[in-house]
Amino acid sequence: MPRLTDISVSDLLLDQKNARIGDEQPTQQSTIHALASQQGRRLVKLAENIVTNGLDPAQLFTVVATSDKKRGYIVLEGNRRTLALKALETPTIVQSALQPGDFKKLLTLADRFTGSPIETVRCILYDPSEQSTAVDFVMSRHGGAQEGVGLVEWDSDEKDRFRVRHGVSAVRAYSGQVLDFIDELDGSSDTKARISTTLQRILKSRPVQQALGLEVSGGELVTRYPVDEVAKGLRKVVDDLRSQRVKVPQVYDDALRQKYIGTFSAADLPDPKTKLTEPTRLTDLPKGTATPVTTKPKRSKTKLKPPRTSVATSDAKINPSPQRINTVYNELVQLNADTYPNAGSVLFRVFVELSVDDYVTRHTLMTEEERRNNPLAKRLKAANDHLRDAGTIAPGLHKAVEQVANSKHGLAAGLTTLNQYVHNSYSFPKPSELRTSWDELQPFLEAIWK
Fold first, then answer.
1. How far is it, in rounded angstroms, from Cα 198 to Cα 253?
2. Rounded percentage of the chain residues whose pLDDT exceeds 70
3. Secondary structure of the chain in the HEC alphabet?
4. 280-281 and 73-77: which strand pairing?
5. Distance CA 398, CA 375 (A)
6. How many CB atoms lie within 10 A of CB 166?
7. Pick from 11, 27, 17, 24: which is nearest to 61 by CA?
8. Using an 8 Å Cβ cutoff, are 352 and 418 in contact?
9. The sheet that has 214-217: what strands, in order across it?
10. Can you tell me the distance from the alpha carbon of 80 to that of 43, in angstroms, rounded to the nearest whole number?
11. C-alpha to C-alpha distance for 204 and 201, rounded to whole angstroms
12. pLDDT tens, residue by residue, 37-78
């Protein structure tokens, strides 16, 4: 059976049969040169990312032990990272394969790497007899989507959605705002067509925006038309792209985009007679929360509210009566997760446990001995069930918290994840995950302190 283990980088061997290389290589030296030549500047970029951010702990190396006396480990998954680490340790091994400018950059990176070297990496280790199994898993990762078996890459809309939901971007791209608007009105489409890039190209055209009844304020699409009116043109654009009646060559440049919007009939566009005085965010319309948006003069720049940096939100309806728990919450509101992710993760875990224990004690859900001896997951479930039975939380929230307790939660706030932040030295909390975890658990924590 494969097992997780830490292996010294010096003991890792590049795969001489690596699929990235045209021919199978006879030696490690020739493999290093061939892979470095094939990667070129990308190898230096990877090395720079490793020096700046470290290795991604979610991407393990897959290795197979050699059967000779001098035990080594052939890398089946992670050859580029292995080569980058070896090149940072000894840059001259790839000097002949790189352009002079790229090698000079590598030397600079190697100096930085010396201050905090990576000497061992976490690997999934297979015995020689298990190599075929390891090969199958590597193939499933690099063989494309394979109807869901392999790695399914995100399209541009999914990438955009991820960036916004995890605080990397403040607002969705124009295409994402329109797709969210149409899906909110009509329901999510079953089509597999990936249209967001082409849709973005169309929506960036000022004449198209004007024809469709759209304006831009602070990166957000706003409109002065009622929902049914503005939906007409946007629905047609989305349908044209999803049905492939319109393809990229037909809207490639601004002239073609103006020609395309010129084919729309009056019935396809907002009725000027319905125009409103104040603009409203496009994505607010289907929700019935048509909050007016004040647009600024064209020459002035709209200042966006800076993204949250703290672990907890300051507007949460949480006011613990015990002074220490209240203080912990206030520290989470002020603690910058980007600067202090480790401190934030530990304090977050502490706040969750103190909150749950206080609720369990207040409502006598367990004896003191039971509370001390039961794991947090069981105490969390007890509080969660009591809140549901009392009608304080909705069934959906109860189910979500139960999944957190069972560590089956698909997002950031699994209880196992919170525990790992405290007890696992190989678990590195990410600021975006901490903020997402707080957002997921905030309704439950508000109910505890209601």
1. 11
2. 84
3. CCEEEEEEHHHEECCCCCCCCCCCCCCHHHHHHHHHHHHCHHHHHHHHHHHHHCCCCCCCEEEEECCCCCCCEEEEECHHHHHHHHHHHCHHHHHHHCCHHHHHHHHHHHHHHHHCCCCEEEEEEECHHHHHHHHHHHHHHHCCCHHHCCCCCCCHHHHHHHHHHCCCCCCCCHHHHHHHHHHHHHCCCCCCCCCHHHHHHHHCCHHHHHHHCEEEECCEEEECCCHHHHHHHHHHHHHHHHCCCCCHHHHCCHHHHHHHHCCCCHHHCCCHHHCCCCCEEHHHHHHCCCCECCCCCCCCCCCCCCCCCECCCCCCCCCCCCHHHHHHHHHHHHCECCCCHHHHHHHHHHHHHHHHHHHHHHCCCCCHHHHHHCCHHHHHHHHHHHHHHCCCCCHHHHHHHHHHHCCCCCCCCCHHHHHHHHHCCCCCCCHHHHHHHHHHHHHHHHHHCC
4. unpaired
5. 19
6. 15
7. 11
8. yes
9. 214-217, 220-223, 280-281
10. 7
11. 6
12. 999 999 999 999 999 999 988 889 999 998 776 678 999 999
Residue with tokens 């049914």: 228
pTM of the model: 0.45
- Crossing angle (nearest 10°) for helices 376-389 and 415-423: 150
**Mind listing the pLDDT tens digit for each residue in 396-413?**
888 888 887 786 543 345
What are the extents of the domains in the chain?
3-148, 156-287, 323-448
Please give the Cα distance from 324 to 351 (Å, whole number): 10
Lowest mean pLDDT among 183-192, 272-281, 330-339: 183-192
* Lookup: tokens for 403: 């999944």
Amino acid at 233: G
Highest mean predicted confidence (pLDDT) among 4-8, 23-27, 172-176, 398-402:
4-8
Contact call for residues 128 and 64 (beta carbons, < 8 A): yes
